[in-house]
Amino acid sequence: MSVFPKITSLKVVPVAGYDSALLTLSGCHAPLFTRNIIIVTDDSGNEGIGEIHGGDDITKMLQSYEDIIIGRPITEYKNMLNDVRKHGWRVANDSGQGLQELDLSNLKFVVHAEAALECALLDLYGKFVNLPMCDIIGEGRQRDSVEMLGYLFYIADSNKMDLPYLKNDDDSDAWGRVRRQETLTAEGIVKQAKAAQERYGFRCFKLKGGVLKGKEEMKAVTALHEAFPDARINLDPNGAWSLDEAIALTKKYGDALTYAEDPCGPENGFSGREIMSFYKNATNKPVATNMIATDWKQIYPSLMMKSVDIILADPHFWGIEGSLRVASILNDWGLTWGSHSNNHFDVTLALYAQVSAAAPGNITPIDTHFIWQDGQQLCDDALQIRNGEIKIPDRPGLGINLNHEKLEKAHQQYLSLKNHDRDDSMAMQYIIPGWKYNHKQPTLVR
Ligand SMILES: O=C([O-])C(=O)C[C@H](O)[C@@H](O)C(=O)[O-]
Ligand SMILES: [Mg+2]
Q: Where is the Mandelate racemase/muconate lactonizing enzyme C-terminal domain positioned along the sequence (predicted)?
């Protein structure tokens, strides 16, 4: 008979949180974004938690795991995950296109819902053996503290949209104010970076591009470099530029840009993996991606063709152990690991910290959207970004515990929404009536 705690329940709680009117190639972030929180309990009384993208399909996938895991000892977590992969609910008709054209309707195929279960089971397991998650995953702990990057965005004027964006909700410092204000210039981006640095101490920045003309965005990169000469600076237009434009822009403004993230993508019958390899040959610029290498099939040609240097292997796309396998391979081959993010709560923030703490090698500072959500924590003991870093707490598992009242409030916010899937064109159409997504046209260039 097993002496190990057994799983007694699985609960899926869809939640929503507030966001700013952030602009990206896919449009404008809506005032509320959705996520799914999974809570797994065992008969020792422990609660394990995980968080993943929102949307009805992902909620359904998570709910389908219940019968597969109830009654099993937590030490069987690897077998439980294997059974979930075999028997869990799946969305049909994946074209295999993935995110190479940033088609957000493909997120449900790219996101691996079982990563949230993996997180909750490892949280329980860590609590059982009384060790932080980073000590029991991958090759074990590689560092005690993880560097995060300051993720900057152009922001639309939410006063011009009849939508419930937060306004004047946080007057505690410059960041609290700046993150809700219209930002469409290089000076505005530098102001945003300074405010973010003041609150969080970031040493590196990433600017989300694909919004203005490439030349304008590179001017913002140059202004950031002048303001923060020691910072690593990255621009991510999500493949909006043509190969020729990406080469020309990088040549002109190259010194300010430490590396480029998905500067170009599929064109003229070539896949994004081929185009990025042409770009690298022409510029020698290090390249990061969360678009062309999001699974094991895509990673093979990407590495064969030397299309990328930095793979942002988000554990929500690869699973926790999958992401760390990517980290080990990249490290052995002299390449670099990092993680991509979408909007998220503090459960994901803790997951990024734990996975990154276990990623071997010289990793790149980790993406997080959380600074845009700060103040909406679901846990009382949420991890903090201080001096640009998150310290791994001396607590077992993820190192955080849900506050069920806060969770219920976020669930009520979710229930107030008609649509649960991300749709960046909805808010965008308030800015440019009739606006339609085009993966080769920056959002405001119409
Ligand atoms: O690096 C990233 O965060 C991305 O490439 C894509 C995401 O869709 C991001 O722009 C977002 O969530 O708004
Ligand atoms: Mg990206």
A: 186-286
The verdict on whether residue 238 carries a ligand-binding annotation is: no
Q: Sketch the domain layout of the chain as residue ranges.
A: 7-135+405-415, 145-398
* Cα gap 325→130, rounded to integer Å: 24
Share of the chain above pLDDT 90, in %: 96
Whole-model pTM: value is: 0.97
CA of 208 to the centre of ligand 2 (A): 8
Cα–Cα distances (Å) from 446 to 182, 248, 301, 434, in that order, read 19, 22, 34, 11
* Fold entry, domain 7-135+405-415: Enolase-like; domain 1 (3.30.390)
Class of domain 145-398: alpha beta
Task: List Cα–Cα distances, 432 to 77, 259, 272, in angstroms.
Answer: 49, 31, 28
pLDDT single digits (tens) 136-174: 999 999 999 999 999 999 999 999 999 999 999 999 999
Same fold, 7-135+405-415 and 145-398: no
Asked if residue 59 has its Cβ within 6 Å of ligand 1, the reply is no
236 marked as binding residue: yes
- Over range 8-35, report the average pLDDT: 98
Closest ligand 1 atom to Cα of 24: 10
Q: Is 443 in the pocket of ligand 1 (CB under 6 A)?
A: no
